[in-house]
Design goal:
Elements lengths: L6 H11 L16 H19 L3 H6 L3 E3 L2 E3 L4 H10 L18 H14 L1 H20 L2 H13 L2 E6 L15 E4 L5 E11 L8 E9 L10 E7 L1 E3 L5 E4 L2 E6 L10 E14 L5 H37 L18 H34 L2 H33 L10 H8 L9 H9 L8 H17 L4 H23 L3 H6 L1 H23 L5 H12 L4 H8 L11 H5 L1
Parallel strand pairs: 3-6
Antiparallel strand pairs: 1-2, 4-5, 5-11, 6-7, 7-11, 8-9, 10-11
Helix pairs in contact: 1-2, 1-16, 2-5, 5-6, 5-8, 5-9, 6-7, 6-8, 8-9, 8-10, 8-11, 9-10, 9-16, 9-17, 10-11, 10-12, 10-13, 10-16, 12-16, 13-14, 13-16, 14-16, 14-18, 16-17, 16-18
């Protein structure tokens, strides 16, 4: 099924809901005018629709394989990657001094959304490189930046990040990889890493791995970890790939989905690398990449939701099955009330997730452009919500897409099942959604709730603006905001963090739904309180935001109930 990039929706969101034009008031992003944004969106849509979308099925049917130590990628992926690189899309937000466009991350997210909708497996490659570019920009030495950034930004070289080990998943501090200084400024890296997205390919001249490892004097836990840049080929005197480094792909994982993206087990056996940032400060540098990737993964989830919705809608508008109850209807299953419910749920939740994700990107851009600490705190607070809700939305919408298709959704040839298989991992990698929720009620409330309460104040402002035109929706949003404020204050009162953690997922979901209602209501007000966006806001608020109060009650239950059954009782 053809993919259609939601350019009109993105323009409306940028111009009428989020006011992206405020970026142009800064010196850094003065050129990011509406005309430029429209041109970027238009060109990105051409790439996604015409080049990448046709590759999606190939990646699923013909996965990447490891042959004699060489990774062979899916048919057409090399050409698709070249189109991404030659268009400059990898470096859209990268610094101009190294060949990037230096445009706002908000636009980079838009391009990544389109590419992820079109072909998630291939788009992952660019996301990894973009995260590495940002980590090197902020933490690498001038020498490393000068050598690696131009190659990564142009797409000539690709980047990865290596955190996970067999015994050290979410507990990164348990890693065993070692690094020893060679005495010439380089280090010898040894260890095994797993779950390395795009650990190798047959279309990049070099693969640059960011690897977490521990120096001999590194203390136990995350505080003793350092970060190293370890290339597949050691650059020669001219900065070109030279001799092979002492690393290899041991195997590729056999996965549920994203088959076109090779997920590697990597072995480092005295491989030569260079430190990024200070000794024992690897997590600080890696979190720069991870925060970028977490927003990117939230975008992936929302993007797959958009693609799944488009396919489900097309099917529902064409499929005729049974007698429909709508007078003068089309006779297709879209006339059935329950199918309509699913389609509206898919569309409304996708739009809500999209607004949260772009609001997060915009806050990041405003913080960078103006050195605004409040916007930086806002971006940090919104990131776990954007990641978790964006990916939950992808899973829920893709599952509904299968349901809309009925029995045909369970048949692989329709393609509906691929979206669910592909998107399922997004709730797991780059920090599981449970970890995102724990981060939200833990670290993100360490400011005494300042960032959270600031966001809630914005929601209250929208509710107040809507009281005249849409009083019913304003009241329902106000009730959610009141319940969420009470839950935030409850979280802040808990001295035992496990009481917070017990309700963290419910709290994050409640915050996401309230934020989604806030943004959809702003969209309704922007069109004058009458029209399709107003009806979509009405559906979302009356059907989904009304669920915030029960979620808030769950969030305040504490831990006792979760441990009421001991391990033996759980098993019986």
């Amino acid at each position: 099924m053809p993919y259609h990039a939601p350019v009109t929706e993105l323009k409306f969101l940028f111009d009428s809901v989020l006011d992206v034009d405020q970026l142009t008031k800064s010196e850094r992003f003065a050129d990011a005018t509406a005309d430029l944004r429209d041109a970027i969106l238009s060109e990105g849509a051409k790439l996604a629709e015409g080049v990448l979308a046709p590759l999606n099925r190939n990646g699923d049917l013909h996965p990447a394989v490891l042959e004699n130590g060489v990774v062979r990628t899916s048919p057409g992926f090399a050409d698709g990657y070249r189109a991404i690189a030659e268009g400059g899309w990898i470096g859209i937000s990268a610094p101009a001094e190294f060949g990037g466009m230096a445009l706002p991350q908000t636009l980079s997210v838009a391009i990544n959304e389109m590419m992820s909708s079109a072909c998630l497996a291939l788009s992952l490659n660019s996301l990894m490189s973009q995260g590495q570019i940002e980590a090197l920009e902020h933490h690498a030495s001038k020498e490393l930046q000068a050598l690696y950034l131009p190659k990564l930004i142009s797409g000539e070289w690709c980047g990865t990040m290596n955190l996970t080990e067999p015994q050290a998943g979410s507990d990164v501090g348990a890693l065993r990889s070692k690094a020893v200084a060679n005495g010439d400024g380089s280090y010898s890296i040894s260890g095994q890493k797993i779950f390395i997205s795009w650990g190798d390919s047959d279309f990049a001249a070099n693969i640059c791995h960011l690897v977490l490892a521990r120096l001999p004097d590194g203390v136990a836990g995350t505080k003793g970890i350092s970060l190293f840049l370890v290339p597949k080929f050691l650059p020669d005197a001219n900065g070109e790939p030279g001799v092979a480094n002492n690393l290899k792909v041991v195997s590729l994982e056999h996965k549920m989905g994203i088959h076109g993206s090779p997920t590697a087990v990597m072995e480092y056996d005295g491989a030569t690398g260079w430190i990024v940032g200070d000794e024992h400060a690897g997590m600080k540098a890696m979190f720069t990449m991870m925060n970028n990737a977490r927003l990117g993964v939230g975008t992936e989830g929302m993007a797959v939701a958009e693609r799944a919705y488009q396919q489900a809608l097309e099917f529902a508008l064409e499929r005729k099955q049974g007698q429909t109850p709508v007078n003068a209807g089309s006779g297709a299953i879209a006339d059935h009330a329950d199918v309509r419910r699913m389609l509206l749920t898919m569309k409304a939740q996708t739009n809500a997730a999209r607004a949260i994700i772009y609001a997060t990107a915009l806050a990041t851009d405003l913080a960078r452009a103006n050195g605004d600490a409040a916007q930086s705190a806002r971006a940090a607070f919104l990131t776990p919500i954007a990641k978790a809700f964006g990916t939950d939305t992808g899973i829920e919408v893709a599952s509904l897409g299968i349901q809309v298709h009925g029995g045909m959704g369970f048949i692989e040839e329709t393609g509906a099942a691929q979206y669910l298989r592909d998107v399922r991992v997004t709730a797991i990698y780059e920090g599981t959604n449970g970890i995102q929720a724990m981060d939200l009620v833990g670290r993100k409330l360490m400011d005494g709730g300042k960032a959270a309460l600031s966001v809630l104040a914005e929601i209250a402002d929208t509710r107040a603006q809507a009281e005249g035109e849409l009083p019913e929706l304003a009241a329902l949003l106000g009730a959610a905001e009141t319940a969420l404020t009470a839950s935030t204050n409850w979280m802040l009162e808990q001295t035992d963090l496990n009481d917070r953690f017990a309700g963290a997922t419910a709290y994050l979901r409640a915050f996401a739904l309230t934020l989604g209602g806030h943004f959809l209501l702003k969209a309704a007000l922007a069109e004058g309180g009458k029209g399709p966006r107003t009806e979509l806001a009405r559906f979302f608020i009356r059907r989904m935001v009304v669920g915030v109060e029960p979620l808030c009650a769950e969030a305040r239950e504490g831990q006792r109930m979760l441990y009421a059954l001991d391990d033996e009782e759980l098993a019986n």
